[in-house]
Amino acid sequence: MRIDIFNVGHGAAALVVADNNNLVLFDCGHDANGFRPSVYLPQNWRAVQQLVVSHYDSDHVSDLANLRARMPIERLLSNPSISVNEIRQLKLQEGPLTPGMAALLEMKSRFGAVQNEADLAGISIPYFYLPYGPRFSDMNNLSIVAFVRYGDFCAVIPGDIERAGWLALLENHDFRQQLAAVNVFVASHHGRDNGYCEEVFQYCHPDIVVISDGPIQHDSQQHCYDRHARGLNFSRDGWRYVLTTRWDGHIVIDKTLGQAFTIRKGR
User: Please, what sign has the CA dihedral across residues 203, 206, 211, 217?
Assistant: First the structure.
């Protein structure tokens, strides 16, 4: 199995490649001056077996209209508790729908709920979400929090969930059990403070934290996760506790059953 965490600035995009070459794409953001999933994926694969949209925001789907035009997307997973019309009404309060958001809403209308899982050659992707309603009506806390599990390896991709959402999910015993297995923790909301929840790390003790972000635009992105990670020893850098796409570029995680996972950076 391979996980690519792409350098897409303040967007979000990560790819899981199973041993049978099937794909799960987490979000479909892009870098206006660089990487686009809609260019890279069709050069190497014929279809995306599943798209997971972790968060209903334009930076998570900015390249989706282009990708849909160039290759099939067979399944869609997003928070099912909020309807297409409810999303549309909320997004229109921010201005006209972007092409990516319009593409997502059309897909959500067409696909409905995920009826069957893709064949991922032994990878499982348990996921959790909070229901849309009086307690949580903001888009960030409606994020899908997904775990990518393969053998003894686990990564968590939490979208843009904020502290209140984390605390609500921590009430779930199954969620806490998943956190306890995590090796790679992708920081919520590009590492900003509003996505940080210290209580998560009472259960989660990752080897390393990954922050997917662009140049710092918010002081809150300075928040330090390194005290929560065990750390990994890189040949050129020594011990690292946090990797960022801003400084390290694309980040690639490789996992073979029966072997320790490895991380490469700078591709």
Answer: positive
140-178 b/e with 16+ CB inside 10 Å = b? bbbbbbbbbbbeebbbbbbbbbbbbbbebbbeeeebeeb
> pLDDT band at residue 223, thresholds of 50, 70 and 90?
low
Average pLDDT over the chain reads 92
Write out the two tokens for 19: 């041993």
Q: Give me the domain span that covers residue 171.
A: 2-265
Total number of domains constituting the chain: 1
Q: What is the pTM of this model?
A: 0.94
